[in-house]
């Protein structure tokens, strides 16, 4: 028999899904485990697999999903074939109820409750002021967090899919290669794990270099070893991230801070030129002074989206 106060929480990305369990009303997930999505046909398989490993009997689930929810159908942007309807998923997995939230909305939900944070540059977030969270992983997520009448209100977003403009002739040439292949250049096309690989391929085509596919980790390792091409790839990536973060800071007027999550930045932070990042972040004429006063913060918590799901579960 399922335990009425036990909740399955999950952060479902394009590559991996992270699962945990919470008692309703608590915020610290237990039994956290990552499962590779390639091993399953969908959540109807991975959820029972995780539950079976724990031996627990959760009554319901709150899932953070990297993708939009339209007409009751949940689409995973970077995981084809994994679309589902929450009520059908509940039936197939033996759960009484499945609630779904955008993965970066879940990150936004978590911000008031996590302290595993690392400042990136000067400034400190203003308490109770609007925050924005964004970050490159398999895709590029964005959500806002607004404080009103003593409560935090999440503003979900698909901001990662806005158009990204080049800031130099070199970027214009690289983006032109991507546009020819993909039809348009969104922020996510560049500022994501696969974005690193797309930048690398475009540079290879432009410069007459080897265009064999390289994983993002291989590009980062080569950059650390001093390879000029790989270092340029990372610099273009970081510059685009800084511009996008500054744009989102302006969009939300994020005096409460710009929080950076996702799986890519923690793995490449040693390659980031912090002064250059902050200069590009704040270069938003005529609002340079406003943006320069906004803090940028790296989320270092291991499972922040699960904390966000737990916060949602705690509200019933």
SS field, number of helical segments: 12
Stretches where pLDDT is under 50 for at least 5 consecutive residues are: none
The geometry reads as globular
* Class derived from helix and strand content: alpha/beta
Q: What is the architecture of the largest domain at the second tier of CATH?
A: 3-Layer(aba) Sandwich
Number of E-state strands: 13
Distance between the termini: 20 Å
Q: Helical content, roughly? A: 25-40%
From the 3D structure, determine the CATH topology of the largest domain.
Answer: Hexokinase, domain 1
Give your account of this protein's structure.
The protein has 316 residues and is α/β, with parallel strands linked by helices. The protein contains twelve helices and 13 strands. Strands 8-13-12-9-10-11 form a six-stranded mixed beta sheet. The model has no long low-confidence stretch (mean pLDDT 94).
Supply database-style keywords:
316 residues; alpha/beta; Nucleotidyltransferase, domain 5; Hexokinase, domain 1; 2 domains; five-stranded mixed sheet; 12 helices; 13 strands
Quick overview of this protein structure:
The chain is an alpha/beta fold.
What topology emerges from the helices and strands here?
Elements: E1 3-12, E2 16-23, E3 30-36, H1 43-54, E4 58-65, E5 69-70, E6 73-74, H2 86-93, E7 97-102, H3 103-110, E8 117-119, E9 131-136, E10 140-148, E11 151-157, H4 169-182, H5 187-190, H6 193-207, H7 216-224, H8 228-252, E12 258-260, H9 265-268, H10 274-282, H11 288-292, E13 296-299, H12 304-314
Parallel strand pairs: 1-4, 4-7, 9-12, 12-13
Antiparallel strand pairs: 1-2, 2-3, 5-6, 8-13, 9-10, 10-11
Helix pairs in contact: 3-12, 4-6, 6-8, 7-8, 8-10
């Amino acid at each position: 028999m399922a335990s009425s106060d036990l909740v399955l929480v999950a952060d479902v990305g394009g590559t991996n899904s992270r699962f945990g369990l919470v008692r309703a009303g608590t915020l610290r997930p237990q039994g956290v485990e990552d499962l590779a999505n390639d091993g399953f046909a969908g959540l109807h398989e991975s959820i029972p697999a995780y539950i079976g490993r724990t031996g627990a009997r959760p009554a319901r689930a709150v899932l953070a999903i990297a993708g939009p929810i339209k007409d009751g159908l949940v689409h995973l942007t970077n995981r084809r074939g994994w679309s589902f309807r929450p009520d059908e998923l509940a039936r197939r997995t033996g759960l009484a109820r499945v609630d779904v939230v955008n993965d970066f909305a879940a990150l936004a939900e978590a911000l008031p409750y996590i302290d595993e944070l690392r400042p990136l540059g000067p400034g400190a977030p203003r308490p109770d002021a609007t925050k924005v969270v964004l970050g490159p992983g398999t895709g590029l997520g964005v959500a806002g967090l607004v404080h009103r009448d003593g409560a935090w209100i999440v503003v979900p977003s698909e901001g990662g899919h806005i158009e990204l403009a080049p800031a130099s002739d070199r970027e214009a040439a690289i983006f032109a290669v991507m546009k020819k292949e993909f039809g348009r250049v969104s922020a996510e096309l560049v500022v994501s794990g696969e974005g690193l690989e797309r930048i690398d391929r475009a540079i290879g085509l432009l410069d007459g270099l080897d265009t064999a596919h390289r994983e993002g980790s291989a590009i980062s390792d080569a950059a650390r070893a001093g390879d000029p091409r790989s270092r340029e790839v990372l610099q273009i990536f970081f510059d685009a991230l800084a511009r996008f973060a500054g744009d989102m800071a302006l969009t939300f007027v994020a005096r409460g801070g710009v929080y950076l999550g996702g799986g890519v930045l923690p793995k490449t932070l040693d390659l980031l030129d912090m002064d250059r990042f902050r200069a590009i972040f704040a270069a938003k004429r005529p609002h340079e002074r406003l943006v320069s006063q906004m803090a940028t913060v790296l989320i270092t918590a291991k499972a922040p989206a699960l904390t966000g799901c737990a916060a949602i579960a705690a509200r019933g």
